[in-house]
Every structure is written in C-alpha cells, then in structure tokens.
Amino acid sequence: MNAVRFTKAAPDRVSLVGLGTLLLITTAAGIWLFAPLARTQRASAASRLDLSHDRIEIQNGMDQAHRLRQALAMQAVQLKAAQVGLLDPSRINERIANLSDLAADAGLSIQQIQPGTAVVVGPHDRVPIRILALGTYPTCVRFVHRLSEQLADVAVESFEVSRVDQGGHAKAQLRVDLVWYAAAAGAAANPERP
Q: Could you state, in order of their start, the residue ranges of all structural domains in the chain?
C-alpha cells in the first residue's frame, strides 16, 4: 500500500514543481519581453516631453521673428524718412574742411588729413579719408561721437587711439579711417552746402 500512495503523491509533487517551474519561466519571459516595452514607453514619454519643449521653442522663435520683422519694417520707414543727400565727389575739399572744423571743435589738433581715391560702388562713390590728430582720450571720443551725429554721409571704418609722448607730456594720438559716401560722379542728390 505504501507504494500506491507513493505513486499517487508523486504526480502532485511533479505538478507543483512543474507549475512552479512554469511560473518561474513565464515570469522571466515576461520580464524579458516586457522590459523593452517599458523602456520604449519611458522613451516615448521623454520624446513627447522633448517635443512639447521643442514646440514651445519654435513658437518663441516664431514670435521673435515676427517682432524682428516688425522692427525691420519700422527701421525701413525711419530710414526712408531720414535719407541722406550725397554730395558730388568734386566737393571733397568742403568735406575735408568740415572734418577739420569738427576735429578742432572737439579739441583735437590735426596732424594730417589724407583723402584716398574714390571707388564707385553702385549708386554712390566711396572716398576713403585718413585723419591723424593729437588730443586727449576724451577729445578723441568727442570727435568720433560728433562725427556720427553731424556728418551722416561719413562712416568710421576703423580708429585707433594710442599714447604718444610730446614734449614731456602724454597725448592721445587718433588715427581714424573714414569713408565719405558721395554721389556717383555727376549725380549729386543735394547740391546745397552741408
């Protein structure tokens, strides 16, 4: 009789061991199969969040572009209202006199004014002018500031201020390269004196 009980008990133990093994294999397979899915879902959620941030940045960029277009349109209107009448290049001596007076009014002592050769660029000529002057740093700054305020047809291309000793006193030497925009030869827009 003992043998019968043993054979009856054996299938129950085998069933429990088999069921446990099956459960273990199923759990491992589930983890192995569904772990990538969970990672994919997390990555998808992160991508959606990134996409949301990107949409906000794009909208901000579009808003900024709109504001810049409005500002550009306003600048175009202001530029049209403040167009500069260009002088004929033959009036270079007048422009040099204007520059000399402006430098003297700022407190600079002119050492040299050297105009270059006019270069035709589209509807106007570009005339390079180099000025060397002595003064103090504040007088150099004053000259460049007044230049931009009073002579709209002259642009500062470059400038350099350096220290020089003159008679035991330190001075500031200004070297400024200017461009005078003149009307193309024979096409002066403003024949009156500046």
A: 1-82, 89-183
Mind listing the pLDDT tens digit for each residue in 90-134? 899 999 999 999 999 999 999 999 999 988 887 788 999 999 999
Superfamily grouping for domain 89-183: Ribosomal protein S6/Translation elongation factor EF1B (3.30.70.60)
How many CA within 13 A on the CB side of residue 127? 23
pTM above 0.70, yes or no: no
At a CB cut-off of 8 Å and minimum separation 6, what does 30 contact? none
Long-range pairs, 153-162, Cβ under 8 A, ≥24: 153/84, 153/86, 153/87, 153/180, 153/181, 153/182, 154/95, 154/99, 154/129, 154/178, 154/179, 154/180, 154/181, 155/179, 155/181, 157/128, 161/137
